[in-house]
Specification:
Layout lengths: L2 H6 L24 H7 L18 H12 L6 E2 L8 E2 H6 L3 H12 L12 H14 L5 H4 L14 H12 L7 H7 L4 H14 L2
Antiparallel strand pairs: 1-2
């Protein structure tokens, strides 16, 4: 399935609440073991460079697996001491469709937990204005909706979000044309404001 077809499928999705209830007694599929080193078995980040993937929505997780497999975002991850560089594109590209589906079901069924981090209130207030003017159309309810095409922003690590916004701005990560228009002129101070806003929304 191409990225275009996958994104088109978003038209039939139903929006669900910010926090998902964890699937009772859900057992991780075998393919999930390759995710645990960075994301943990519960999918909840304890590293400012790594996003939480638990409960962010099945559409978004599936979309990102395809984006990585098609090398449409930076592939190399080297954030965990002792692990060395990990090529996520190669790692995900080796998965079968059934393995990807199992990963999507497992991590989307877990509960999202916001990353604990400090918030600069003044920056967050400015970020609220930037979000309302540029981001709310797609990242609804202040970036808290798990089943938006673009998943949960509120409560993700600030360092991770800032890096991804810079990647989008530099054209290093695939994005919709509508998003490209919003981030191409986004200055670093505006990025700092936005990520503080998203951190504050979750607290």
């Amino acid at each position: 399935m191409t990225i275009f077809r996958l994104l088109s499928a978003a038209l039939i999705l139903i929006v669900t609440p910010f926090v998902l209830v964890s699937a009772a007694g859900a057992q991780p599929p075998g393919a999930a073991e390759r995710c645990f080193g960075c994301h943990g078995e519960d999918g909840v980040s304890d590293n400012p460079d790594i996003p939480t993937i638990a409960g962010v929505g099945d559409f978004y997780i599936e979309n990102q697996l395809i984006v990585f497999a098609e090398k449409a975002r930076p592939c190399i991850v080297d954030f965990l001491p002792g692990w060395g560089a990990v090529n996520k594109c190669a790692l995900i590209g080796s998965l079968s469709e059934s393995q990807r589906a199992a990963l999507v079901e497992y991590f989307a069924g877990l509960a999202f937990e916001p990353y604990e981090q400090p918030v600069d209130t003044a920056l967050a207030e400015r970020g609220a204005v930037i979000h309302a003017e540029n981001c709310e159309r797609c990242h609804t309810e202040n970036g808290t909706v798990s089943m938006d095409d673009s998943a949960i922003l509120a409560g993700q690590p600030k360092e991770y979000l800032a890096r991804q916004l810079r990647n989008f701005r530099a054209g290093k990560r695939w994005q919709l044309e509508s998003m490209a228009r919003e981030v191409e002129d986004l200055e670093d101070d505006a990025i700092k404001a936005l990520v503080n806003f998203y951190a504050g929304v979750a607290q």
